[in-house]
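Aim 2 progress update. The chain analyzed this quarter is reproduced below.
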Amino acid sequence: MNEQSLHTDTVNDWITGYLTNSLTPEEMQSLQEWLNASEENRKYFSDMQEVWIAASDEADNIVFNKERAYQLFLKQTEATTRQNINKHKFFQLRPWMYAAAMIIVVFICGTIAFQSGKRVLRNQLAQITIEAPYGSKTKLYLPDGTLVWLNAGSKMSYAQDFGINERALNLTGEAYFEVTKNKHIPFKVHTDELDVKVLGTKFNFRNYQDALEAKVCLLEGKVALSTQQKETILHPDQQALLDKKTGNLLISSTKAAYSAEWTNDRLYFDEALLPDIVKELERSYNIKITIADAALNSVRFYGNFRRKEQSIREIMDVLSSTDKMTYTIEGKNIVITLPE
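Predicted structure tokens:
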């Protein structure tokens, strides 16, 4: 799918809706698929974001120059044309690109008028929020080309100008990242207890609000980790395990690729605490699991399961075979107890 196969008005509406934080989840998914289709689509989208930011900068000075914003877009797209000609890949500036630029500019003018002269500051840009509901996961590309898998019960948010002057996002839950390299703009992921900063790498970041531990596993590259107590560097096939209660951060060796197996519908537990395993199973199978004996909260398990091929009962049978626990199941409710 590319811009030629889509009605131009539809593409324009998606981009305008994105910049105004008014897209429906279905439209957001369609925009993401369009961005995934080609580098040309992503470059055009980035140009539109820059027009938006440039127009907001003008608004900071109260006087908005519509012609300046429009000329800025033309200058950027003409530069792209020259670059592609030099690479023997001719890129023609299409009429719908001019139209899309004017849609954005007109919307900004209307917004400024509606605000009755109030300053439109960059830090007032709306946050884009993406969620993956229980029982599913979401794959998407960020505006800078970074691939993200968002696991069930997770939420991610970032500003509309992501990729222009900074690449920062907030995460609740679990996500796998393949970060596009940009030595000038680091990629940052913020959670309540643990932050990650990278230039370009592949890593898995897990920090659900109801989990006892936060974990970062590095597959490729190098990442900088920071907590309230310390900072450290993580190297490939290392994991950082943060005890959220004590603040202790433990670095150890691991087969990091396993941490991203959930993107392939596998559930991989590497000496994970039972309460965290329970939460993962609840999110994956959309069920309710209760741990009836507090002594089980400190028990750890290792396991590797195929979510689509194995039922929740099969997984519980495997965990029970360790003789560390037993369970009863009734419909979508499971109770875990100590073995008799």
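The chain has three domains: 3-124, 127-259, 265-337. Residues 1-5, 56-67, 84-96, 105-124 have pLDDT under 50 and may be disordered. These observations will guide the mutagenesis experiments scheduled for the next reporting period.
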